[in-house]
Amino acid sequence: ILSVKVLNDQGSGYISDVASGITYAASHGARVISLSLGGSGRSDTMRSALQYAVANNALPVCAMGNSGSSSNTPEPGYWHDCLSVIATDQTGAKASFSNYGVKADVAAPGVAILSTMPTYPVTLTTSNGYHTNYDALSGTSMATPMVAGIAGLVLSQNPNLTPAQVAGVIEASSGDGVSWSSNLAFGVVNAYKAVSSAIHSDYVAPAANLVLPTEGATVSGLVTVQAAPSDNTTVHHVDIVQNGTRFMQVLTGASSTSSTSTGKGNKTSTITTTPWTALWPSTTVFNSPITASVSAVDVFGNTSAQNLDFTVQNKLATQSGTAHVCWPSSKTCPNTIWQPVTTGVKTQAATHLQGTVSYGALSNSKYADFWLQVFSANADGGGQAYYCGTAQGTVDCYPPLLLQPDGSKSLSNSSGGQIDLISPNKNPASGNATINWTLTYPQ
């Protein structure tokens, strides 16, 4: 067991430190790396560290995050090399705060979990199981180490398993063992079933046999994704991954067994599956060529992959606006302006944000920055914002944010701009600016 500190005492730090901790643990023999942390970026540094861990036989187990969002997964949980964990409450349902969605793999209890507290000395519990040096905490950070512990138990039974096989065994033994849902992924983990499945003699990888979309196809709108995987045992699911992250719903389905006679009194069995189908809103990615990896995973975690190349080409729409902002802000001229955007999108839509600024008179200002903003509310009433700024006159950014469908007050989209001025001396800076922004998105 290794204890590797990557954040400061306030729980914050740098991606490079977290990545260094991951590679350190993998280099020093860790087979499972529990990561109850997360950041908003999408960094090659983090992705490379996770890839290094898997290549060195270590399984990263990562928290999905606590913002209640289906489209705002922090890294490292964002990356497919992680076994990413949703938190559940005492009823087994998704905890209200837990992130969820296509990046998630399994779920585990994460509400009111009794644990030691690092802020003061820990002593023995009292007879009723509680003590002032212990406390009940909630979060995907509490759910993640439970899954990491199960991974350790699986490896204690069969240390020859690869990280992918350990993850596959845990996924196949979770929930009902068959289905996947946005709220719970493959379901709540089951330690007994996972450990019972750790020892087996099947190491034959299944075939994905993707049917739709076809190689080289151009797609738009809602796209039918279909596979007909086959295996000598039972296929559990089919994953479709692009740039290191799962970007559409997992495919699951039913299996059937057929037997073939060899002519010498022997029979061979092949398990095939009815085509597994899902609908994918292609508006969740920008118009571009897509290279994806399609992986079939059986109940023992054996995996094979095939490549798929296709092109997303949706009709694009634009909205634009002007924000006149001031520093310092006033009732008649605020520092930040949000403006509602009626997009007309029927499914989630990726955004491309562009803008220019023209400054008015500036006083005592050494640095003048302007920021573009996009806000998109979630169906549960929460929301997320993306800021893209520059000290130059223009900005062009592809934020990792999805607009939500219009239609209700809780599902509104908005965009706008703000100005920040920094004074080089004690005299307060002041000034104003006009920001013109354009939002481009697929329909």
In brief:
The chain is mainly β and 443 residues long. The chain has helices at 15-27, 44-55, 140-157, 163-172, 191-196; strands at residues 32-35, 59-63, 83-88, 106-109, 113-116, 134-137, 210-212, 218-219, 222-227, 230-231, 235-242, 245-246, 255-261, 267-273, 276-281, 288-298, 303-312, 316-327, 336-341, 349-350, 352-359, 367-377, 383-390, 394-397, 402-403, 413-422, 431-442. The protein has three domains: 1-199, 3-Layer(aba) Sandwich (Rossmann fold), CATH 3.40.50.200; 203-314, Immunoglobulin-like; 316-442, Jelly Rolls.
Task: Tell me what you see in this structure.
There is one protein chain. The chain is built from 5 helices and 27 strands. With 443 residues, it is mainly beta. The chain folds into 3 domains: 1-199, 3-Layer(aba) Sandwich (Rossmann fold), CATH 3.40.50.200; 203-314, Immunoglobulin-like, CATH 2.60.40; 316-442, Sandwich (Jelly Rolls), CATH 2.60.120. The protein has a 5-stranded mixed β-sheet, covered by helices on one side. A 4-stranded parallel β-sheet has the order 1-2-3-4, sandwiched between helices. The longest helix is centred in the middle third of the chain and has 18 residues, at 140-157.
The percentage helix is 10-25%
**What is the H level of CATH, i.e. the homologous superfamily of the largest domain?**
Peptidase S8/S53 domain
Compute the average pLDDT.
89
CATH level-1 class of the largest domain: Alpha Beta
Quick one: biggest sheet? 5 strands, mixed
The span between the termini is 50 Å
Number of domains: 3
Number of helices: 5
At CATH level 3, the topology of the largest domain is Rossmann fold
From the spread of the alpha carbons, the general shape counts as: globular
